[in-house]
């Protein structure tokens, strides 16, 4: 065992086996394997261009690393690594390289520390996952917008609620557009993380202070797609900022998804009956033969709490940790990887489940005007006729109370009574949902033309984010 | 696939494969396997005693379950389960039972829901882990007390700090006793969780409302070691309270360990040099040949944040979730299991690493009187001589400032100067650490006789908690 | 300013005003004022009985403290304190005592540190709030049980849901009993915190190591109602364990309340219409005249997240903090006090709002059998007739699918069809809700007699917790 | 009371006083007062330009609002508001406006809901605080860079640690540059929040669906400095995304500050003695006359946990909340405001305290080469001479073990021994700290010329962020 560890020249006693197992992060970081290989190949670039190793050694290392990359892609590496006692994925890859290129392998770690290696590998992982997350979120925006366009054409209506109480009639397309707006912000958040991840490359920072070897840092950074090598080694090896940004973005994406999921879960109850989930996205019960449960949306709803917990864990690990590398950072890494993998699975599932929602147009539209949802429009009509807002609100509220006691909706008699009480002439107070929706005059309102404009604008903004030339970054070097 | 799910009679379409995979918790809950088997055997007891199944079926089920238990103990079950597409450990065991007892197996789920099964299995897991955690924490208390007794005999001293600044001389035994006090509270917390876990047995609660089958709930509960069957099925299947109590207790245990670990990490710096870690508990660096890093204590320090994150996740999942079972509870389970397994590993490692600490008695003792740590004793002597506390504090502070400017410790000339300035006769103001420690007169102080009493009292309290007849519970039935 | 600080003899430069203001916790801890006064009076007991101060001084201090206590009770102290530049409530009370008893006042701090003073004061606060919380939670249990008894008599039924989908018919009393079970655990949790809070009294622990003055710690502890003086000063002044236990208990209480609140919010929608909130507990909208919003339950629902956040903050502050006192503990205190005050306000509001819920018995009962909620009973009847569980489940599920397609509930024709398909004779498969409920045979089920037993048992357990002689504690000294 | 509420026409019973008090957020949101007034003036713009109110009314409203703004600025408003029973700051300002302009005041709420009003006011607050936070963070970067330049000139050295164990010699300027890098990311994060906050203006979104009144939304948005009116009312009134972004950015800023603070706290111990805090930034003890405590840095260290808790609370409140407005959002607002105010106070204090740090150059520099910190350089020299990395590491580690046993640093004899053992010629292996530092050859290393370049680059990047024309936003309309 002693020989296999990458350190040990100074140590007499063998490590305590139990503590060594405890210290191992192999189960937590195996997912980093492909990124470590790329990082190691970049280090070969740095060594080769710095003429620290000769061409033959460099070629041997690169060939061995390509071989390991293949093993990883084919799934063989993981099962092999799990049989070893390597303390982490980086150690496992190092060992595998030495299996394939024994002599050259002993030179791979020249001028490299585990610290800059881990920091770089993690950034590559973060960039990859941020890009994937951006893609999933974009797909969700596109689905919501496309569905909104369809439902706009179908004129499906809905009683918007606030406090879950009927508020005002809206278009279902309007609700879908609201979801799209939220996910557009999610797209932007992941976009920024992906950009920030490849700004500064830590590779070549050594353990903490740089290296006395002439490592070709610029070439290595370029090989990996980074804008520039990092500027301060001590910062580069000990900050986990972009990784935390990713975890935060994941949590926020899932909060967004959880909000829509809660609404779908409640809408799927027979009491509401606004949506029906396809069999393919529902599950049954092991005891109750009649059940049709909206499990994917329940799991997505709860996934937000998991991501918040992972964020809390990662941020808590960093708090009060002196600058530089501490072993505590291994835990930060574990929380972020586990939280991200779990979170992206939920985000993917959300994107997968959305198309299985079958909106019950008729039921939704029928409900849209129930619950006195047009009361605000009547009050607005009074205001338009010159009544102060407070008086208008009071006058309509009084009639709602009466109608409620009589167990009916607002009707023409109420309009008359309000007109009498306020000595106002009421024009165009809509008493049905469609009229209420059509009467909206403000930008961003639920009126069909405004919803159409919003959807178009969202499409434009999404396209601008997806454009490869749209970079927010203003790096310096 | 359709046939293999335990529900499906009502469904036409096959489930979406991706969503099914997403919904699977097999990776999260395989650790529950032994507990599910015991729970299932208890259900056989309930069915048999309720004469719902005949003896032959009951025997066949029990034999098959015993067989599965053996597979689990030998590790074969896990590798088999991972090859299946079962949605959770409960489904996997159900399928395995039917492999071994096809006809009888179809009757195992009679009158049982996944809901009461999961709730019961989780409580058995919680009770098991709480007991183990209590044992580990007890071991830590015992180690700290035994070490304290050793260092009390050796009269090792230490400059106690507040704000990390030297405060007053204490015995190292006193510091160890403080750690023991903290872990004694940890023991008590786990003790209560272990007791609460086996109070009310959910098995036989059905999905939510109980069963029309005459399940023998008392017998099943007794088989599992519970005090009584649960009283309200709807609560029993949907609350995760004891599991959250366990997660909380784990977090608190690790916070306690993190506090001691931080101190050890700093004491292990050459600047302090108060402790030296054995090679067996230290790790080196892949780049820097001279490093001796206190990794186990760094990982334990950071483990607290992970446990807090898991607690946050579990509690967040439950917040605002209507009573009864929701799929969100699957996530709660995952967070608690993962947080507990990870947390107990850290707690075990902490217990394992403590004995590798080699206290540097001489250096510690030498430092004990440095930094004007006896100043409070001098002020107390003035108060004892009749001076008001504020005046005493001011008089000593003035001399400390002078001594500090002159780059020396307090000495006899300062005592004289203070006596002159305050016109007080100062008796017995200790100017060295040992005298300061010996001069303490209060219960709970660092004076050797008080430390000895505290250690004895801690031993007594620990023994009383460990006694099998010491139950806090006042259950009713 | 320099003179007013309780330290300063050693300092030359005045403190930075901005940093001093930043360091002040007066806004955070003024709520501790009554507890600091009691604590200070106990210290007078310790000084008097230790003959450290003479009787006249002790009397003068006690009289001054009684005067301050009166000011606090009458609200004058707070407004006075806010005009001072005191750094915390302890400093403000110290200054006020010196206003009333200048000479004696300078002796109050003899042998006392801010550290033991803060720790003791905080425990007194924790004990007080834990007792109040226990009382509120008890009141909630009593209300839920009493309401359950009323609704049991009224035979109000409900469609229990799992995954928010109709599951099985239950009694409303059963749902209320589930809520009572949850809050009974809340009562127990607060009960333990209240007991633990007064186990060990820190007063007399000094800054970190005890005192050379012969403080009468036992008498002071007894004066405050503690079981014993603390055993290890270093632990006593630096642990915040019971305070964290309180914060945890508050969070858990609010999670319980949030779960019921979510259900009430959804039940209050017109779609469900299961409950109607009295005007007194509803709020309207500033824009929409018709609104009747269940605000108290929304705020209670969200209060759980706030309490989890406060718990996270408090635990995070402690993580990795070396033993002993650090200024970080001031933040811990602030989070726990703020989180507790806010949390108890929400708990009180929940208790206050519950009686305003008007259950809509008829609508609830009508819904109870809709959604094929009796399907499980039919399957159980098949199992009772000898069919394996899996086959029974499949047979019933098939008929549910047919009934659903035909837009109707299960009826006698389905029973016949199932009997034919399975060649089973089905006895007593209930097709209406009341029959389904009555058919339940297990302990803890929704059958009326079992609900009645559960309610009686809950009442007994609550009474046993409230009994003054029921102490869980097993302290040693 | 009934009349004073802005809703009530439909209600018969008076609200429960206790619940009304519970529902009040006045204590939480008074800090929003100036922003509500600006928002209300913008609504007058919308009403006036939409010709919904006449010019005289608009003028009267604007004058009244200006008057209230003055009261707020002068501090009179808060004391007045606290005497009212208003439910929040918005209600209080509404009432105050009606005091000054009774007739016009009743028209202020025309076409406005509390929902769009709160959302807009909160964004204005967020923009203001994000800008202030960006300024503070910029000041911190500037201070760190300027101090680094000074210490670079002074050639102050430091033993960089990893795991708190001596690692390699670095310049103090390098450590300061690492801190500057971290805070530069903080600046960028606040910069983005400030930009995002004023992207889309919610005002004019009504309660949830827009308005039938022709509100001039573009003009109102422009008046407030927003880029455009929001596109989807339902999203605009119910998302708290930018406010959460601010809370996240605050937490991250404090984590950065906590890391530096931890290091300062430890460096301020006599054992390290690397820094001495000025009296102005230190505090004493009420018991121990000699204490000099680094309280500001302890409080900043712990402030990170508080901000994480506030973030957890805010995100938890939003999780699983259906789209649209729910009263739960009031709690979100409270957590974000309280967390931000508290967090910015800590950030300001950190900026204020940094200049009081007096680096002990000689002691730091002396320590820089202790602890075998040059071992890596020796190993690198071997690698440069052609030895494989693993062999080099082993060879040096062996000599470190010997030197450690002999209680001495590495010296020329070790170099000779290593050369012999490895048969390598070692050139330029530095044995002292300054040589080690100078020998570094990589970009981003601690070599003086690289540190100088890094500092210059940081200055450039900071300036580019501060430039008014540097906008990251790509809004659409």
Can you lay out the helices and strands and say which pair or pack?
4 copies of one chain form a homotetramer.
Chain A: H1 17-23, H2 26-29, H3 33-49, H4 55-73, H5 76-82, H6 89-100, H7 102-105, H8 114-154, E1 157-162, E2 165-171, H9 172-197, E3 200-201, H10 217-224, E4 228-229, H11 233-238, H12 241-267, E5 275-277, H13 295-318, H14 328-353, E6 357-359, H15 361-367, H16 375-384, H17 389-405, H18 412-422, H19 433-438, H20 448-466
Parallel strand pairs in A: 3-4
Antiparallel strand pairs in A: 1-2, 5-6
Total count of domains of chain A: 3
Oligomer class: homotetramer
What is the overall silhouette of chain A? elongated
Please, what is the average pLDDT of chain A?
93
Return residue spans of chain A where pLDDT drops below 50 for at least 5 consecutive residues.
Answer: 472-477
How many strand segments of chain A? 6
- Named at the architecture level, the CATH assignment of the largest domain in chain A is Up-down Bundle
Q: What is the SS-derived class of chain A? A: mainly alpha
Helix content of chain A: 55-70%
**Helix count of chain A?**
20
CATH fold-type name of the largest domain in chain A: Fumarase C, Chain A, domain 2
- Return the string of H and E elements of chain A: HHHHHHHHEEHEHEHHEHHEHHHHHH
Most extensive chain interface and residues per partner: A-D, 137 and 137 residues
What summary fits the major beta sheet of chain A?
2 strands, antiparallel
β-strand amount of chain A: under 5%
Q: Considering the protein shown, what is the CATH homologous superfamily of the largest domain in chain A?
A: Fumarase/aspartase (Central domain)
């Amino acid at each position: 065992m002693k020989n296999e560890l990458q350190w040990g020249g100074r140590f007499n006693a063998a490590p305590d086996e139990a503590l060594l197992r405890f210290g191992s992060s192999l189960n937590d970081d195996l997912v980093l394997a492909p990124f470590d290989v790329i990082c190691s190949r970049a280090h070969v670039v740095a060594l080769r261009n710095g003429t620290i190793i000769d061409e033959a050694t460099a070629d041997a290392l690169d060939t061995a690393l390509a071989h390991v990359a293949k093993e990883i892609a084919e799934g063989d590496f993981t099962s092999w690594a799990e049989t070893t006692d390597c303390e982490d994925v980086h150690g496992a890859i190092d060992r595998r390289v030495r299996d394939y290129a024994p002599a050259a392998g002993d030179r791979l770690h020249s001028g490299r520390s585990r610290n800059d290696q881990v920091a770089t590998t993690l950034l590559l992982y973060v960039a990859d996952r941020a890009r994937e997350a951006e893609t999933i979120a974009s797909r969700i925006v596109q689905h919501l917008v496309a569905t909104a366009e369809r439902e706009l054409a179908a004129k499906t209506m809905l009683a918007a609620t606030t406090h879950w109480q009927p508020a005002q009639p809206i278009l279902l397309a309007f609700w879908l557009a609201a979801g799209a707006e939220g996910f557009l912000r999610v797209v932007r958040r992941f976009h920024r993380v992906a950009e920030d991840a490849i700004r500064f490359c830590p590779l070549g920072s050594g353990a903490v202070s740089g290296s006395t070897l002439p490592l070709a840092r610029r070439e290595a950074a370029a090989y990996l797609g980074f804008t520039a090598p990092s500027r301060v080694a001590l910062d580069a090896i000990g900050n986990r900022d972009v990784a935390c940004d990713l975890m935060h973005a994941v949590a926020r994406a899932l909060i967004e998804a959880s909000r829509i999921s809660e609404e779908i879960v409640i809408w799927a109850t027979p009491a509401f009956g606004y949506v029906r989930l396809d069999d393919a996205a529902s599950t049954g019960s092991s005891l109750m033969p009649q059940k049709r449960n909206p499990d994917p949306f329940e799991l997505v709803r709860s996934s937000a709490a998991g991501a918040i917990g992972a964020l809390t864990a990662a941020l808590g690990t960093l708090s009060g940790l002196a600058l530089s590398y501490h072993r505590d950072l291994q835990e930060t890494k574990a929380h972020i990887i586990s939280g991200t993998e779990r979170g992206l699975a939920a985000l993917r599932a959300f994107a997968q489940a959305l198309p299985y929602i079958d909106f019950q147009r008729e039921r939704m539209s029928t409900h849209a005007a129930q619950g006195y949802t047009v009361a605000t429009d009547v009050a607005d009509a009074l205001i338009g006729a010159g009544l102060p807002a407070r008086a208008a609100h009071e006058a309509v509220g009084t009639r709602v109370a009466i109608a409620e006691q009589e167990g009916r909706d607002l009707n023409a008699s109420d309009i008359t009574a309000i007109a009498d009480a306020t000595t106002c002439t009421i024009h165009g107070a809509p008493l049905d949902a469609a009229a209420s929706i059509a009467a909206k005059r403000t930008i961003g309102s639920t009126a069909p033309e405004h919803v159409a404009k919003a959807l178009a604008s969202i499409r434009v903004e999404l396209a601008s984010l997806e454009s490869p030339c749209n970079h927010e970054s203003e790096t310096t070097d």
